[in-house]
Amino acid sequence: MGFALSDMQLTSSAFAAGGAIPSKHTGEGEDVSPALSWSNAPEGTKAFAVICHDPDAPLVSPGGTYGFVHWVLYNIPASVTSLSEGCTEYTAGKNDFGKAGYGGPMPPNGHGKHHYYFWVLALNDDTELEPGLTLWELLQRIEPKVIGMNRLVGTYQRD
Q1: What span, in angstroms and rounded, lies between the C-alpha atoms of 7 and 154?
Q2: Is the pLDDT of residue 31 over 60?
Q3: Of 96, 102, 144, 158, whose CB is crowded by the most CB atoms within 10 A?
Q4: How far is the CA of 74 from the CAs of 123, 126, 127, in angstroms?
Q5: Cβ atoms of residues 116 and 53 within 8 Å
């Protein structure tokens, strides 16, 4: 696995870094993805991918993966620097709800505060990938092509 240090910045108009994700963007609300925007992509960027993962979810899969994947989105052109709220553009992968597209935070009742890592990955290759890839399949395919990345972490807790 390679490192992809960069000066990229990822922000959302829906929540601040380390802040609570509004219920609108969760399984208890409208379940729409938050607006995201990024800047300072590395030179040579040809495409982006966006993912959302909850490492606090108490799940370990047979393949050694952990946590819960809420969103896998890719084939995003290098000219794009933001995703609107409820984005349905580009290519959706499969989340751990077993569906394509975004599935918002919904931690188990009484499990405390979970941290949701929204990542943007800059790629030096814009080869079109087929729909429906899981996070782990996507990462296996793009890992050698990632030239920059950064994250925005939000939190959510159910009572």
Answers
A1: 20
A2: yes
A3: 102
A4: 10, 10, 11
A5: yes
The pLDDT tens digits of the residues spanning 42-94 come to 999 999 999 999 998 877 776 677 899 999 999 999 999 999 999 999 999 99
Going across the sheet that includes 9-11, the strands are 9-11, 36-39, 82-83
Check if the beta carbon of residue 141 is closer than 8 Å to that of residue 133: yes
Q: Quick one: DSSP state of residue 98?
A: S
| Model confidence at 3: pLDDT above 70 | no
CA–CA distance, 139 with 127 (Å, rounded to integer):
14
Alpha-carbon span 101 to 64, nearest angstrom: 23
Distance CA 55, CA 67 (A): 4
Contact between 71 and 33 under an 8 Å Cβ cutoff? The reply is yes
The total of other beta-carbon atoms located within 10 Å of residue 43's CB is: 8
Residue with tokens 């975004």: 102
